[in-house]
Write a structure and sequence with these properties.
α5 crosses α7. The longest helix is centred in the last third of the chain and has 21 residues. β1 and β2 form a beta hairpin. By secondary structure, this protein is of the alpha/beta class. About 35% of the residues lie in helices and about 20% in strands. The chain starts with a strand and ends with a helix.
């Protein structure tokens, strides 16, 4: 493992490279980013709290609601972690926040590699295992066991859902931001899957025609908060999106089929979605207040197959990335997230 070094996001963040061996395209790494929140004020001693109670004064020294919680975030397709505001949400409530740029994405992309390519989503178990090991090391010798909350966006939500089902006791809670749990044309998935599988076996690196017209990126730019502009690296988050290859598409369809059959996630799950979808065939103002990537009704239905405890939150006016939406929708999303997280923390004994 390498050491922590300054991250591209600035002084609030550091990154650490996680070596994962090599493949036919060379060195493979993942990258873990950690937030560096401002230190919390010192807590009063037990004697000071006792004296406070004797005086009849209120004790304002309660631990933050997410004290003892680690958050691991995984990005979506053609993406990487850059959302400072999301990290601050978690650290302001006492959690340690980490984000993982998966192999061949963002900070982890190396020259000569096919961006985002994977032939089996289970391969990401190696990336996640390496991240969790560093997070454990980073916690040091803590007398109090820490709890793990997973957060995934879009493809990252699919990856984490499958991982959590295969590792039923690893996560304590899961938050999914518009998870890609089903193919955009759900009734056709079973019909096209055999053709895609055959193509993946014979020509896995064959790229499909690019159909991204750039409207989703335009919608994000249109609703961006001028007081909190988020700049991204176009090489890591290109417009149009990265090419889709046959081997990768088969891995995704296999993941969708697994979700459709039902997962066994023991931890409580919060699924956050836009209230509606819009078809991005031409530009219109409607695209700034809807999910233009997924069919949200299909995702809401699939979400109920993740496990026995699933909450679905529908946010009016939200984009595909709920937390990059227009300010009103974004603030509603954060309020809903806080309500769910506070309830989970209280119920689980935080």
């Amino acid at each position: 493992m390498t050491e922590w070094v300054p991250d591209v996001l600035g002084d609030e963040f550091e990154q650490r490279t996680l070596p994962l061996g090599t493949d036919e395209q060379g060195e493979v790494v993942a990258t873990l980013v950690r937030a560096l929140p401002a230190p919390l004020p010192p807590q009063p001693s037990g004697w000071e709290r006792f004296v406070t109670r004797l005086r009849g004064e209120s004790d304002k020294s309660q631990h933050p609601v997410l004290d003892g919680v680690d958050v691991l975030y995984v990005h979506g397709w053609s993406d990487y972690f850059f959302q400072k505001r999301l990290a601050r949400f978690w650290t302001a409530r006492g959690a340690r926040f980490f984000a993982l740029d998966l192999r061949k994405y963002g900070r982890s992309l190396r020259e000569g590699q096919t961006p985002g390519y994977i032939a089996d989503l289970a391969t990401y178990d190696e990336d996640i295992a390496a991240a969790l090991e560093v997070m454990r090391q980073d916690a040091g010798e803590s007398a109090r066991p820490r709890r793990l909350l997973l957060m995934g966006h879009s493809t990252g939500g699919l990856v984490l859902s499958l991982w959590a089902s295969r590792h039923p006791d690893a996560a304590d809670a899961i938050v999914l931001n518009s998870p890609w749990l089903e193919f955009q044309i759900a009734p056709l998935r079973a019909a096209i899957a055999p053709m895609v599988e055959l193509q993946a076996r014979l020509r896995p690196m064959e790229a499909a025609p690019q159909i991204d017209l750039g409207f989703y990126a335009r919608a994000q730019a249109a609703v961006m908060d001028p007081d909190d502009v988020m700049q991204t690296n176009p090489a890591w988050r290109p417009v149009p999106a990265m090419p889709v290859h046959a081997g990768w598409l088969w891995a995704i369809l296999h993941g969708h089929r697994t979700v459709a059959a039902g997962l066994s996630i023991k931890a409580p799950v919060c699924v956050m979605l836009s209230a509606r979808s819009a078809l991005p065939t031409r530009w219109s103002e409607e695209l700034t207040s809807a999910d233009t990537v997924l069919v949200v009704e299909d995702i809401a239905e699939r979400a109920l197959r993740l496990g026995p405890s699933v909450t679905v939150e529908r946010i009016d006016g939200a984009l595909h990335d709920i937390f990059l939406s227009r300010k009103v929708a974004r603030e509603e999303a954060y309020a809903r997230l806080e309500r769910w997280v506070v309830g989970w923390a209280a119920a689980s004994g935080s």
